[in-house]
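ok trying again, last paste got cut off:
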Amino acid sequence: MARGARPGVPGPRRPLSRDRIIRAALLIIDEEGVEALSMRRIAARLGVQAMSLYNHVRGKDDILDGVTEFITGDMRMPRRMAGGWEEGIRDLSYGFRRASLRHPRACEMVLMRQLSTRTALAPVDTMIAMMLDHGFDEEIAVRVLRLFVSFQVGTLLQEVRSGPGSGRETRAPEERLAARAAYFAGSGFPAVAKVAPILAVNDHEAEFAFGVELLISALRDLAPVAPD
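nice, full thing came through this time. structure:
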């Protein structure tokens, strides 16, 4: 018990703030997905009345903007990338990936949501500036950005949603792998059967790295030629 507190008398309640509301919303999204988020759910999580939230936020869209700001800030991207563009692509890719795996459901929402705040636009500016600073065409820079976002969304969905699925799954990972390989091998499709042992494995780290290097390799053909 805190010094000075009296038995049976509750201690002072933490004051409500925008930051507390955003963090409570993030927890709900992490646990249940953005579709579970509502003003009532956030208020219940904080032990307050729903109407009291409006003293600090304008509504659900404002809260989602706040979550977007939190996630993009958590990526800790510099305003300008040092070094070459290839290393810059790698740094940005893995920075996004680390943030995504800390808050996968929230990051899925952020990556697919319109970037409507200055904080959310910061990593976008970093990516485009890096491409322009190294001489890439403006149209190419924007298309690369969109391809980059699509790649991040796709790999995040694949990794987060390709787990065992049902909570009733009791088999060990080795058993699940063997069952998947056997299913593919006996599918009746010759090409699928031929690669069954490989197709059964989800090595997300290796596949992410493969995608990043493939993107970099493709961009080399579009990179400005350095003067002699």
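cool. The chain is about 65% helix and 0% strand. Confidence is low (pLDDT under 50) at residues 5-11.
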